[in-house]
Amino acid sequence: MAFDVNEVRTSQEIFYYLLKHHELREENEERLYRAYFENEDIQHLTKSQGETAECRIERYGNTIYLIPNENNNYLGFSKTQLKEKLCKSGATDKDYYLSQFVILTLLIEFYDGQGSSSKTRDYIRVGELLNSVSVRLQEGADQMNEEEQDRAGIAFSDMLEAYEALKSDDTGRKTKTTKEGFVHNILVFLEKQGLIEYVVQDEMVLTTKKLDNFMDWNLLNENNFGRVLKVLGVIENGED
Whole-prediction pTM value? Predict the structure, then answer.
């Protein structure tokens, strides 16, 4: 199929914009947004460039997003990079998986996948999130032996051990060696990715439109989120 040279150029503009900003909003760049939305050839060309760069380009609402594939360490983060950003110095895999568990728990607290919108609350306090992480880890370790945890693909006992190794600190310090600091650092990282709003002085977390769109239009439409819900004990293993 032959494409018009102007369409090719426009698709390249859109892709370059996405590389720089990770998202393209209609109100910020109407010309490029409308070109993508109204012209199937431009849309096809842009998506093709995304596939070459190991990422997906999706439009949710009035925003076009650049979403790196899971193993895209250039446009996304590798496990090693995430461990360095989210965990204390010399962190083990237990610490890394604990950081991912905190993020999953945060998602569960905000979204349940039911109704026209999956979002169930407007905000969560950091203290409530800490309590939820502790409770879910303990419940998982109590209800599943190590063999069952291996089959489920989530090591509650190992993560609980890593969580309990973190100190508790009521003085307000935010070091990665405390429970409060560990979660604080994760929330700062998520805010930098444009996924949440973290009001430190009020110890409050709110989600952004970007995360709401991604959860409603993408993750909650996939079977793997149902598996996450089952592993965390939100729904019973026998339910759909």
Answer: 0.76
